[in-house]
């Protein structure tokens, strides 16, 4: 009987990772799943770098696919067009269920939802989505594979009925312009660059944020500028403190609630695309906070030239992007994003120096003729040590907000990888039936704790300083050490440590998406399974830490204490954990 009930429940519910929202305010909408394929096919191209797109741009894309695609792609585009542009309001429900079979954890959720898309006139559009969730797991507790973020834009509150949190999720956008010039603003998730998922500039796995996108999209060139209003966290970090707050003397408040306003990321890029098969872009960004600076809104300013006027108090990035389509149906994309470089060494061709980089390279293929085989992609992502992990200059008080690290609400706003990590990612999409997709995916992630191999001066500083340093190798672990300079300031020990974490993931997901032709709504059924093996899962625990009265130790005794802490960490870090994630469910929009 229990087995029958479980099967019935699985058939009736939908996976959390597949919760869709209205298109113009959410880059996770299934329109973007199809857009990735259309871009690879060559049906559309040279689109603005910042997503999600306004309704005006979505309409142009869908009309291009209807005009250029084969019968099946034309049919898909017409379904999207009908649900977005032929009805103003859509209401429905979502449900979810997930299991971790080895740990016995269960996740359940139910939502009532309403989506609105409306064009006031050809130049002004608006989108809005509201989901009212009843769930038993908050986003940071969800049963999802490692290094994947929750799809829910909810924040913990006191609203709870029994085991269920009752919380709203709202996304909205308003746009003005046309296909060549537009401004799009709202509270929504973001995505920037040629990689739609988990990109190194802005990744859609991060919690929604205030977003303002300005785009110029000409035939031979383009300009994009985005402003993101983020939430700063303190130097401890939400995940870190939830595990270790009791180890810090004087830490009396729950730091997981310590989010602060006035943190901003501004990104602008200039692209040239002289041919349909080639696009090259230069980009620059700045992460700053504690104030709002209108100088960073100047569209054609150079942030590295603006920053000196602020006393070098902000964190600038430089980068480049490219897309090449060498063959019909094939696309090669690349992004290189530089946090900090040793310019003097590089121009002297001394390459064993500081490289604070995040990079991504991928190849994808989608045949122009629709059939069983729909899409395949392989991409590699790297984040070198200390990339994304800046701190405010002269501020080593971890209880203060950090406006310079690349986080939003305690999580990475770029790739969902800690510094000193890389990832190889494979995706295959099959379409055995017109309304059925089968997604096969695999990933291998490596990570190492950069604090292995520290100098004696730095180790002494770590163990003698109360509440002073994070040594878990996460994005909260910055490189500046008072009295001992910057760790690895002129070297880049990328994954050169002796003990590494390895995460292997492989899974399959079946999705059936049925249109409701009469109302332009849809029904979605989903069933998914992921196997995950996590080797040396304790690598992201702290290595060195302060112990009571350690500041009174001699240098020799402090180094001996550090050696003992390192040995204990190595002992605790090893081991393997296996996880099986099963998710299933249903979504209905009338």
Number of helices: 9
> Low-confidence parts lasting 5 or more residues at pLDDT below 50?
1-21, 239-256
Strand tally: 26
Q: Largest sheet, described in full?
A: 18 strands, antiparallel, barrel
Task: Just give the CATH class.
Answer: Mainly Beta
How many discrete structural domains?
1
Measured as a percent range, the helix fraction is: 10-25%
Could you please say which CATH topology applies here? Answer: Porin
Let me know the average pLDDT: 88
> Structural class of the helix and strand makeup?
alpha+beta
Summarize the structure.
The chain is α+β, with helices and mostly antiparallel strands. It has a single domain, classed as Porin (Beta Barrel).
Mind sketching the topology for me?
Layout: H1 2-11, H2 30-41, E1 50-51, H3 55-68, H4 71-85, E2 89-100, E3 105-121, E4 124-135, E5 160-161, E6 164-177, E7 181-188, E8 191-192, E9 209-217, E10 221-234, H5 238-244, E11 259-275, E12 278-289, H6 303-306, E13 315-324, E14 330-341, H7 343-347, E15 355-365, E16 373-383, E17 401-402, E18 407-408, E19 411-412, E20 421-433, E21 436-448, H8 456-464, E22 480-481, E23 485-486, E24 500-516, E25 521-535, H9 555-573, E26 576-589
Antiparallel strand pairs: 1-8, 2-3, 2-26, 3-4, 4-6, 5-6, 6-7, 7-9, 9-10, 10-11, 10-17, 11-12, 12-13, 13-14, 14-15, 15-16, 16-20, 18-19, 20-21, 21-24, 22-23, 24-25, 25-26
Helix pairs in contact: 3-4, 8-9
Could you characterize the architecture of this molecule?
By secondary structure, the protein is α+β, with helices and mostly antiparallel strands. It has a single domain, classed as Capsule assembly protein Wzi (Porin, Beta Barrel), CATH 2.40.160.130. 16% of the residues lie in helices and 42% in strands. The chain contains nine helices and 26 strands. The strands form four sheets. It has an 18-stranded antiparallel beta barrel. Strand 5 (160-161) and strand 6 form a beta hairpin. Helix 3 (55-68) packs antiparallel against helix 4 (71-85) and helix 8 (456-464) packs across helix 9. The model is unreliable at 1-21 and 239-256 (pLDDT under 50).
């Amino acid at each position: 009987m229990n087995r029958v009930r479980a099967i019935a429940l699985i058939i009736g519910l939908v996976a959390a990772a597949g919760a869709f929202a209205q298109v113009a305010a959410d880059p996770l909408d299934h329109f973007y799943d199809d857009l990735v394929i259309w871009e690879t096919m060559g049906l559309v191209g040279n689109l603005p770098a910042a997503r999600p797109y306004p309704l005006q741009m979505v309409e142009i894309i869908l009309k291009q696919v209807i005009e250029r695609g084969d019968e099946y792609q034309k049919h898909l585009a017409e379904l999207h067009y009908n649900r977005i542009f032929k009805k103003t309001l859509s209401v429905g429900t979502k449900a979810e269920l997930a299991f971790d079979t080895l740990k016995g954890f269960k996740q359940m959720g139910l939502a009532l939802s309403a989506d609105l898309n409306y064009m006031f006139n050809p130049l002004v559009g608006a989108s809005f989505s509201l989901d009212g969730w009843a769930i038993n797991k908050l986003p940071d507790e969800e049963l999802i594979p490692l290094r994947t973020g929750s799809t829910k834009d909810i924040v913990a509150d006191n609203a709870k009925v029994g085991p269920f949190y009752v919380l709203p999720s709202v996304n909205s956008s308003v746009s003005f312009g046309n296909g060549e010039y537009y401004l799009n603003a709202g509270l929504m998730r973001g995505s920037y660059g040629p990689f739609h998922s988990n990109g190194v500039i802005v990744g859609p796995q991060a919690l929604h944020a205030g977003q303002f996108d300005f785009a110029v999209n000409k035939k031979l060139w383009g300009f994009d500028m985005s402003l993101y209003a983020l939430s700063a966290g303190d130097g401890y970090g939400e995940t870190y403190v939830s595990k270790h707050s009791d180890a810090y003397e004087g830490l009396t408040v729950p730091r997981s609630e310590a989010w602060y306003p006035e943190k901003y990321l501004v990104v602008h890029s200039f692209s040239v695309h002289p041919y349909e098969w080639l696009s090259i872009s230069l980009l620059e960004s700045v992460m700053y906070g504690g104030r709002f600076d209108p100088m960073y809104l100047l569209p054609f300013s150079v942030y590295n030239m603006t920053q000196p006027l602020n006393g070098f108090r902000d964190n600038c990035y430089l980068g480049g992007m490219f897309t090449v389509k060498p063959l019909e149906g094939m696309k090669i994309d690349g992004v290189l994003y530089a946090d900090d470089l040793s310019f003097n060494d590089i121009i002297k061709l001394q390459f064993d120096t500081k490289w604070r980089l995040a990079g991504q390279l991928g190849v994808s293929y989608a045949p122009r003729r629709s059939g069983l085989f729909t899409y395949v992609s392989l991409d590699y992502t790297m984040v070198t040590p200390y990339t994304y992990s800046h701190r405010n200059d002269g501020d080593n008080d971890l209880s203060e907000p950090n406006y310079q690290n690349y986080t939003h609400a305690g999580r990475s706003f770029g790739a969902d990888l800690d510094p000193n990590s890389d990832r190889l990612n494979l995706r295959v999409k099959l379409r055995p039936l017109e309304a059925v997709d089968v997604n096969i995916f695999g990933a291998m992630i490596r990570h190492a704790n950069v604090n292995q191999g520290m100098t004696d001066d730095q180790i002494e500083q770590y163990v003698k300083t109360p509440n002073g340093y994070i040594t878990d190798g996460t994005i909260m672990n910055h490189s500046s050490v008072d009295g001992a300079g910057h760790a690895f300031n002129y070297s880049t020990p990328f994954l050169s440590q002796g003990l590494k974490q390895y995460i292997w993931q492989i899974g399959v997901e079946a999705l059936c998406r049925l249109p409701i032709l009469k109302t332009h709504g849809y029904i979605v059924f989903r069933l998914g399974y992921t196997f995950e093996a996590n080797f040396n899962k304790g690598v992201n625990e702290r290595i060195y830490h302060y112990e009571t009265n350690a500041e009174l130790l001699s240098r020799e005794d402090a180094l001996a204490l550090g050696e003992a802490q390192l040995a204990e960490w190595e002992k605790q870090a090893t081991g393997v954990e296996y996880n099986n994630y099963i998710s299933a469910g249903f979504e209905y929009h009338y």
